[in-house]
Amino acid sequence: MSDYDTDVLAWSERQAELLRRRAANEIDWDNIAEEIEAVGRSQKRELRNRLARLCQHLLKWAYQPELRSRSWRATIVTQRHELQSVLLDSPSLVPFVAEALPTAYQTGRIWAEQETGLMHMPEESCPWAAAEVLASDFYPGAPGE
């Protein structure tokens, strides 16, 4: 059993040291490859989670206009800012936004319904395009507005 199985931090520090020394015969190549792939999965997961939180607050904004607050606006602004940071760090994720939005929307809808008790939010698909969700000036109106 290697440190990878018992202490990932110790393993990662050791592997980084071996890579810097270019000690090819001592490097745990299979687990290095797995960890590098995990970085990409982590970035995708962060993007989906931030999109879901953004959709949650956009839905609340649209479906509870009488309760709109600075706090909701701040959350929307913050999530958009954090999404832009993720996309700046990993530009190859830009096309993934449109792919991730349907799943993120469903998660955000569930969160919004649990928080608000509203059960009449659109279920089928996200009513907004990815560009709208990311646009700093997009705040959906109430249905019928």
Describe, in plain words, how this protein is organized in 3D.
70% of the residues lie in helices and 0% in strands. The longest helix has 35 residues. The protein is elongated, with a radius of gyration of 20 Å. The mean pLDDT is 88.
| Helix coverage percent | 55-70%
Quickly give the structural class: mainly alpha
Strand content: under 5%
What is the overall silhouette? elongated
Attribute tags:
145 residues; mainly alpha
Give the helices and strands, then pairings:
Blueprint: H1 3-6, H2 8-21, H3 29-63, H4 70-89, H5 94-116, H6 130-134
Helix pairs in contact: 3-4, 3-5
Question: What's a concise summary of this model?
Answer:
Helices cover 70% and strands 0% of the residues. With 145 residues, it is mainly α.
